[in-house]
Amino acid sequence: MNTQQLLKILHDQKKEIIIDGNVIKEKTSDYENFYQLIRSNGVWEFSEMNFERKSTPEKEDAMIFSDESKAINYFFIKVYKKLVFTTVFSANNPVYEISDIDALQQLFNHLGITSEYYSFQKIKPQIVFGEADHDHLTISYIDQNQQKRFTTNRLKLERGIFVMYRLTYSLSLLKSLEDRMIREQILVDRFHDDEIELFLK
């Protein structure tokens, strides 16, 4: 992703950013934390400027990138993850009332989340995979090579249902946006597994 693609995709999501020379940052209210990318000496530094309980903001979670595209993708993933937080964790969320996998799948159907993004039976590329074991659930993200990129602990079913919901809903939002941006010729390349993992975790 380059800066123009970043501008277009975030504009589509009604999120404003500021690009000023070698600086890319979120446009936020005063004293609100924001993400930024700064180019200096041929490398990009990502960081979060944190105002919380501080008289002046402090730089946190700094990451250095030699590749501009990877730096911009990282910035986008962090911004988009924050954008969709209230969608995934909506008030009065019915997932808190769900105690079995059939009801979870019904919720996914209601939200328009298809089996393209998850499975309880078959491992497929770039899905969330749930392994049920009596009253427990173990959840993995399956990468492009059909390998488990990360796996949760064995969770009690109620907790596992919520984690399955969170990861699957998040993945569906990212992948459906990716598909639409590619169709509209805003994006050319798909997100890599490490970027998807960053978004989900």
Outline of the structure:
The protein is α+β, with helices and mostly antiparallel strands and 201 residues long. It is built from six helices and ten strands, in the order αβββββαααβββββαα. A five-stranded antiparallel beta sheet has the order 1-2-3-4-5, covered by helices on one side. Strands 6, 7, 8, 9 and 10 form a five-stranded mixed beta sheet that branches.
Key features?
single chain; 201 residues; alpha+beta; 5-stranded antiparallel β-sheet; 5-stranded mixed β-sheet; 6 helices; 10 strands; globular
Task: Please characterize this protein's 3D structure.
The chain is an alpha+beta fold and 201 residues long. Helix content is 38%, strand content 26%. The chain has six helices and ten strands. It has helices at residues 3-12, 68-83, 85-88, 101-111, 157-183, 193-200, and strands at residues 17-20, 23-26, 34-40, 43-50, 58-65, 118-119, 127-133, 136-142, 148-151, 155-156. Strands 1-2-3-4-5 form a five-stranded antiparallel β-sheet, with helices on one face. The chain starts with a helix and ends with a helix. The relative contact order is 0.12. The mean pLDDT is 95.
Number of helices: 6
State the end-to-end distance. Answer: 21 Å
Estimate what percentage of residues fall within beta strands: 25-35%
| Major sheet attributes | 5 strands, antiparallel
Alpha carbon gyration radius: 18 Å
Adjacency order of strands in the biggest sheet:
1-2-3-4-5
Q: Please give the number of β-strands.
A: 10
Q: Look at the helices and sheets and give the structural class.
A: alpha+beta
Secondary-structure element sequence? HEEEEEHHHEEEEEHH
Q: How would you sum up the global shape?
A: globular
Low-pLDDT residue intervals, each spanning 5 or more residues: none
Give helix % range: 25-40%
